[in-house]
Amino acid sequence: MSVDPHLSGLAGTVVHDVIVPARAPWLHHVAAGQTLRIVDLEGNQAVDFLLYAANDDAERYSAQDTVAAQGNLFLRKDTVLRSNEGRPMMTIAATSVEYHDTIGGACSCESNTLRYGHHTKSQHACVENFLEANLTEGRGKRDIVSNINFFMNVPVEEDGALGIVDGISAPGLSVDLHAEMDVIVVVSNCPQINNPCNAFNPTSVRMIVAG
Amino acid sequence: MTEVLANPIAARAHARSMAGTVVEAMPVLPPVADDLPAGVSGDALLWEETIAAGGYASRRLPRGARLRLVDLKGDACASLLLFNAEMPTERLNVADTVKVQWNAYLGQGKLLLSDMGRVLMSILEDDAGTHDSFCGASNPATNAAKYGDGTNSGPYPSGRDRFLLGVAKHGLTRRDVHPCITLFKGTKIDPDGTIVPQIGPFEPGRSVVLRAEMDVILVIANCPHVLDPREAWTVTPLRTTAWRGPVTPADDPIRNATPEGLRAFQNVEDYFRR
Predict the structure, then answer these.
(1) How confident is the model at residue B3 (pLDDT cuts 50, 70, 90)?
(2) Angle, nearest 10°, between helix axes A63-70 and B140-147?
(3) Of the N and C termini of chain A, which has fewer Cβ atoms inside 10 Å?
(4) pLDDT for B35-55, tens place per residue?
(5) Please, what is the average pLDDT of chain B?
(6) What is the pLDDT of residues B160-178, one digit of tens each?
(7) Is any Cβ of chain A less than 8 angstroms from the Cβ of B257?
């Protein structure tokens, strides 16, 4: 029997294992104590990520509370992903990439018109995925806040200059998230083709929940 | 209770006797300001208020209005939420604001962008230079941890709780308190991502002037910055003055400063094409 390298080191029983196609949304409830592993199957794929508390979805991931609490912009191993009420939602238990972004936000049809021009308005975008997934559970536009971009690199220069630059991921690299409470995970497997976040070629990612 | 105030007529007289009291933090109605910029008539005034240390205010301002914020004593901390007044599901998007402008530091000429690719407000003038788009506001938990209490009813209210009250007065709820920006208290980012707070205290009287590019609802919370290192809960009053002004013309230098910003203004102009 061959060993699946993407399951290596994952504790507990695999309860969910799915490949999210390029450009697609994904929504899943992860229980406290379970671990979500995200595998960047082909490399250089940004995974846009939001979290809601399962029992009260007005409590949700807060990029600002997360970075303020740790005094650092980058999400690394042991970063606690905090809610808008300051509570731990998930912890980065392991990551094969040094850091992840949470200041770059999600691409949208509307922001694409600013960044690239109005010719991009009809292209698919992460906010479309976030809306599609959230609408299935009664959430809407008001529920979309600053997100995490796993495997995305957004350095800030001395003068504040900032931009999405080449990815820091490679095929098979992964991040493990330990749920500190019952959470709803909403993901957009980023369809952006106008900047380097997906190496101009969106690809599939694998989501594995164990525990 | 004194006997005289047990009588409703006496209680009324007592309440009415307070009229005309002047305190440091209060609105001035009708608005009066003796330091408006040259060329601005007193008739154009929309709002004059001093927001208390730890206080908040919310206000609807029309497209073209100018909003001047003054850090009266050097320790104001103006955290700001912004909504499209006629469709508040459209609101400030801090991530798009820094990403679209390719820069994380707010200052003169920068735009505050909505999640619909439009500019809600622009920064006309800034002599402060220390602002924050990363850390957001304090919340009851962070204030309880630092100061021993973080409730609205206690001595150390948090920015988030002030926001909640401010949005509620426009019919909005917990879902609407979005990531904010903070003016007057700043952050700088080291190469390794370390957030370096710039808390001051600064010289009194620093100011920022914003221009409303759409009809907006703004909510301002004036509570200590979440990374304020001082042991004591420290914040001083914030003055707000707003006046009517012309809608941004086609030859405006801020409108035309960058291709991304120009498209944000074009999206605003398209929205108002009706």
Answers:
(1) low
(2) 20
(3) N
(4) 999 999 999 999 999 999 999
(5) 97
(6) 999 999 999 999 999 999 9
(7) no
For residue B229, pLDDT over 60 is answered with yes
- Cα of A86 to nearest chain B Cα, Å: 6
Distance CA A21, CA A17 (A): 13
Place of tokens 């592993």: A37
Residue count (chain B): 274
Q: Tell me: pLDDT of B22 over 60.
A: yes
Whether the CB of B175 is below 8 Å from some CB of chain A: the reply is: yes
Tokens 């904010």, residue located: B180
Which residues in chain B are closer than 8 Å to A67, comparing Cβ atoms? 134-135, 195
Chain A to chain B, count of Cβ pairs less than 8 Å apart?
142
Hey, what are B260's tokens?
């991304």
**Of all helices (H) and strands (E), which one includes residue B263?**
helix B259-271
- Contact indicator for B206, B74 with CB cutoff of 8 Å: yes
Rounded Cα–Cα distance for residues B210 and B70 (Å): 12
Cα–Cα distance between A115 and B262 in angstroms, integer? Answer: 11
Q: Are A118 and B263 within 8 A, CB to CB?
A: yes
Query: Are A110 and B117 spatial neighbours (Cβ–Cβ below 8 Å)?
Result: yes
d(CA A40, CA A21): 11
Tokens encoding B239: 């003055």
Chain A residue nearest residue B263, CA to CA = A114
Question: Which of A103, A115, A142 lies nearest to residue B176, judging by beta carbons?
Answer: A142
Do B134 and A115 count as a contact with CB atoms less than 8 A apart?
no
Chain A residues lying within 8 Å of B98, measured CB to CB: 103, 162
Question: Residue B47 corresponds to which tokens in the numbers above?
Answer: 């709002």
> Do residue B117 and residue A111 have CB atoms under 8 angstroms apart?
yes
